[in-house]
Amino acid sequence: MATYRHDVLIIGSGAAGLTTALRLPDECQVALLSKGELTSASTYYAQGGVAAVLDQQDSLESHVADTHVAGAGLCRDEAVRFTVENGPDAIRWLIDLGVDFTRFEGGDDGTLPYHLTREGGHSHRRIIHAADATGKAISSTLIGQVKQKQNVTLFEHRVAVDLILQEHHGQRRCCGAYIHNIRTGETDVVLARSVVLATGGASKVYLYTSNPDVATGDGIAMAWRAGCRVANMEFMQFHPTCLYHPKAKSFLITEAIRGEGGHLLLPNGERFMHRFDERGELAPRDVVARAIDHEMKRLGADCLYLDISHKPADFIIEHFPTVYAKCLQLGLDITRDPIPVVPAAHYTCGGVVINEHGETDVPGLYAIGETSFTGLHGANRMASNSLLECFVYGKAAADNIARHLAELPEPRDDAEWDESQVTDSDEDVVISHNWDELRRFMWDYVGIVRTEKRLERALHRAELLKKEIGEYYSNYHISNDLLELRNLVVIAELIIRSAMSRKESRGLHFMRDFPDSVDNPKDTVLTPGTF
Ligand SMILES: Cc1cc2nc3c(=O)[nH]c(=O)nc-3n(C[C@H](O)[C@H](O)[C@H](O)COP(=O)(O)OP(=O)(O)OC[C@H]3O[C@@H](n4cnc5c(N)ncnc54)[C@H](O)[C@@H]3O)c2cc1C
Hints:
alpha/beta, binds flavin-adenine dinucleotide, four-stranded mixed sheet, 18 strands, Methane Monooxygenase Hydroxylase, Chain G, domain 1
């Protein structure tokens, strides 16, 4: 077992982790971890872009108002204003670092020469983007920059297992983490005066997701075990159309296909959206996702279909080159065949409760990006606000750490990873079986449409699995699959308990037993040790 010592440990190499690393001063020694390659993060897969007020026709007030409307009465105004007001500076920072956003031809009115698109919920053009691969452009630039920093040590294929807590001057502080090397199987200690969780969301808790494999809610689970409050976990956003194919993992079918006249079809070829909303296929994301889920459950169907084949082939290939190419690779010609689709878990609106500096309830521990709960998204995230949140809070956390670092205690050297009581398991099937079971019952009982009965069933199963996985974790050597499963079962319980305590329907949380919204809604804040 090796022990490493740094000033700051950042867990995660997405937009949140990279921003924090780049915003810290050069004299600060930083360790930055990623579970896989540095690009193994949702950030890399973001398509649409980043929302910010960059056009003279637009205003901060309008961005604030749109965010509140999308959040269905639960956004925290301070968080919304803080994010929106710092948005333009965050974009300028990205441009200065070299992110190659799509440019706007012509125009000389003092605004930035970049093309802005409009997305659902935004009443102005305010999405800056790099074609339809914004995340890739941002990741590549930030990773390129961080690799040049002498003060940042990069650790790939390392998974943080748990946080290290120590008493210093009567205060329980976070002083590092146990880190498992996925390649060698060894577990090391990284000590640091401040630790930043930038581990992304938890959408892998569902059977179908648009997220990469790393999105297992590790940061939320670790923070919960360390004593941090977690809020609003019932608000999981589902994207209505993800490709359903045994060989296609997590591939989104863009909403623009519906925008350009695509039809949603039942397995018998019948259209159905008009039965749910007069806007048909053009209804908002959550309405379409609920309708697809309803029809799949009613018919016991594995998937439904999205069909654009009635449009000319040239039009389809020109407008949707990425979807066309990906489907063709899998033997599906979308100019002739309907595309099999299912809704998929896409974004975690809740997370670890933080303040405007990114600080959690545990001194020394910060949480940034999708893993955190700032109050920005309320009951439903507005498109492209999530990346913005990473850049704004990443800077806020870095500034706060830099201000206080000199006065923080040096961690003690007494943390050790003890493997003396564990052996190799000859029953790894338990892990793969429990992974499948967990993700399937979450999909069936805690998905897009919920009922009290379904939630009770799910809680019962989650509690059984938690016990079984806990015993397994205590007796056998750890692996990445086991660590992720141990975290996912915590996430499942947090989502179920949050959903059970919200006796209304609001934003992304739809309860068939309580279809209406209450007056004066509150955040669902769960505190460790209370159940
Ligand atoms: C397909 C897709 C399209 C999207 N499009 C947009 C968009 O257009 N605009 C927008 O604003 N948002 C979009 N989003 C959402 C947005 O991409 C994410 O919310 C955002 O990128 C989250 O950034 P993050 O840094 O918090 O987490 P991530 O980018 O997910 O990074 C998490 C990091 O933590 C690491 N990690 C996790 N657990 C551990 C552990 N235990 N130990 C070590 N490392 C760990 C991972 O390896 C990864 O490096 C999209 C998401 C997806 C999936």
